[in-house]
Amino acid sequence: MFTRSIATRLMFLCTVAAAPVLFAPAALYAQAPANTSQRGTVKAISGTSITVTTEANSEITVTPADNAKILQLAPGSTDLKSAAPITLTDIAPGDRILISGHAGDAPTSIVAVRVILMKSTDIASLHASQSADWQRRGTGGLVRAIDASTITVAAGAKTLNVNVTPNTTYRRYAGDSVKFEDAKPGTLSDIHTGDQLRVRGAKSEDGSSITAEEIVSGSFENLAGAISAVDQKMGTVTLKDLATKKTVVVTVTPNSVVKHLPEQAAAAYARSHAPGAAVPAGTTPSPEGGGRRAGMDLSQMVGRLPAQSLTEIKAGDAVLIVASRTGSSATAITMLSGVEQLLSAPGAAAPTLSPWSLGGGGAEAGGGPQ
């Protein structure tokens, strides 16, 4: 029981916006369990008290016991043997900590017998490196077929074969959340046809297949059409989806990724993804079609675009939206405006977005798709 719970806590300790799945060796857990534990982000330190914002967004006060072990673990590591002893003065706001101990006198207090810390600067550096790797070696699309060793993905007008191995790790996006940090460890059996999928790994020379190191998937709705109404007060947009011909009201939250595709970039993308588009000499076709530049993954393009606010969206704008749905409510994960040319291109396959923006950066950037 303790082994499983500590494994999960340490795995999430290095998850700020998005971190890869980490499975810890059994040697990590050969310690007696404490009767309570929490993980979260350090908000403030005063004397010997640490104020922590937990994963549930509540605040607790942590006071290390006199004999408490305070250890610093490198991001990505799950082996306490590699952890370095530190003192309370080494802890700073923004750091991630895992606390084990017992309840204090107040309902929201913990007396810690062990504190495991990851520095915010180390996490940011790791995430920047991982984000760059997702940008360089990541791709994705809609799942069309699955067998024991291969996932067939529709990437624009092309087909991509995702080859899985025993070493492939999986994350599953929570259907009721637009935060990648809420994605849970998963398995191949969690993936279904129609799912959105992002994969990172080694691509074949012709771009038709990729050997998956990490896969992130989820069940989402792809919506495309012209906006008929924008309610700034309620934070919603209304559009008639081109595929289903149904009118949909989508909520745009502060966690939604909203971007605008410039007219010139939209025209270039539409041309490169038109049926029969030529591949420039000396380039390798990508699974999205076209050459290295012309066939760029649309979701990777989105990652490089500046953020847009809902106040800049107006009725008549054409948009692509990836949304999560809970009951009858749809919430935008990614919304891209400026796509009139993509939706009206004759004979071209309707483009789709990933729920995750792979470029960008900033406070919400993480190690994987965000």
Task: Please give a structural write-up.
The protein has 370 residues and is mainly β. The chain is built from 5 helices and 19 strands. The strands form 3 sheets. It has a 5-stranded mixed barrel. A 5-stranded mixed barrel has the order 7-8-9-13-12. Strand 15 and strand 16 form a beta hairpin. The N terminus is likely disordered. Keywords: Signal. This is DUF5666 domain-containing protein. InterPro entries: DUF5666.
Uncertain segments of ≥5 residues (pLDDT<50)?
A: 1-33, 279-295, 357-366
What is the number of helices?
Answer: 5
Instruction: Please identify the structural class as seen in this structure.
Output: mainly beta
CATH class descriptor of the largest domain: Mainly Beta
Number of domains: 3
Average pLDDT rating: 78
CATH architecture of the largest domain: Beta Barrel
How do the strands of the widest beta sheet line up side by side?
Answer: 1-2-3-6-5
End-to-end CA span: 31 Å
For the largest beta-sheet, the strand count, sense and barrel status come to: 5 strands, mixed, barrel
Relative strand content: 35-45%
Overall, the morphology is: globular
User: Percentage of helical residues?
Assistant: 10-25%
Succession of helices and strands: HEEEEEEHEEEEEEEEEEEHHEEH
Radius of gyration: 23 Å
CATH H-level superfamily title of the largest domain: Copper binding periplasmic protein CusF
Give the strand tally.
19
CATH topology of the largest domain: OB fold (Dihydrolipoamide Acetyltransferase, E2P)
Protein name: DUF5666 domain-containing protein
Signal peptide: 1-30
Domain DUF5666: 141-215
Biased composition (Low complexity): 274-287
